[in-house]
Sequence to fold (462 residues):
Amino acid sequence: MSGADLKGRLRGPVSDGAPAITVSGLSKLYRRSAPGNHLRTLKSALLDRSLVAGLTPEESIAALSDVSFTVARGEAFGLIGGNGSGKSTLLKIVAGILKPSRGTVVVDGRVSALIELGAGFHPEISGRENVYINAAVLGLTRAEVDQRFDSIVEFSGLEDFIDEPVKNYSSGMYVRLGFAVAVHTDPDVLLVDEVLSVGDEAFAHRGLRRIEEMLAAGKTLLLVSHSLGLMEGLCDRLLWLDHGVPMRIGEPRRVIDAYRLAVAEEEGREHQRDQRREQIEDPRADKAGKSGEERGAEAAAASNTRWGSREAEIAGVRLLAADGAERYVFASGDPLAVEIRAAARQPLDDVVFGVAIATPRGVECFGSNTDVAGFVSRRFAGEATVHLRFDALRLAAGEYLLDVAVHARDGKPYDYRRGLVAFTVTEERPGVGVYAPEHRWEIAGGLELALGSKAGPPEGAP
Fold:
């Protein structure tokens, strides 16, 4: 059963009362380490008031910038974004571990936080002793810990290791014990930072079930994870942060699509920069005086993403939209053209151009070449441009990689480039698999179904 199915089955309506978490105008600045200042003394810092004076933009790094949102009681609220986007900093401020530079955070209820691996554990003492210490820090009395201890240990699955020093635990065991303590403190608000991905599969399922039970009981979850599938299935709303700036807040699928779009656009810009570098360096130039075959062998030895004799070379590949603009993000069903620029080092009369599409995990989605399409090569000399056009790209939502090759009919590679281009396909309605054909549902007989509102207008940015 998926997280989305669980959410619909177990969770009741989100509370309409006072919010569990209110974040208003939150900013967090860190002092930038200027050259020559890292060994300054406290006395010198106090004399020039650099510890208490306001930081200028040149002196500071903004981890968070004017972040505002509320989380209702019983809501699962998620934070997504790249590394360094401020997600963990925000979670630590909500937990009270860090103080904001500006703005306010109000949390209503008992908070339990699982933010850093092994946080609050003493490595030299046993798991049993750490459970008591950690639970006390989270607000439980010794009598309450005594009452819940067996349940905590059973949930963690560490019965055979509970009296071992924690320093002997693996990272997964750290997480299992810390998570078990956190969820048994009966918190009103649970803060979790990328820990479910550390434990094993069985414990991850157990942890998700416990979180769903807490949400069904009206508890509140603030979650950070890079697993977008988990976030979509578990959370009611998401906030996307980019370098500390709130970019979008709303329904998970919409926010995730916007985030993936931005990531794909950045990957497209990186691809364009790589293409320009290749053009400047002129990969066809034989700077060392070696033959194309020798250089091809060296390239194959250095990398498994490009190989061949280089008698013909792929000079550049672009993905083009219907209007001819270069793009690397497409909606399912959009037209797309693959533009291949190639050059022959010497005239060739046996040439085939091929294109293949696969997922990053290697699932082959499509493959074709000019030979199977019925083209017979006559001559290739100098430079040429080849286009493969799709009137409607019927791929499901996800990330894809493009292989491009030029080779002889017998398969001898002139230039084979694997995973040369990455692109993203978006789809308004989620599905399963890699193929998204046009389709419709037809209802007859005694069944009545009303068209839902999942395709409503996108929610705006905060």
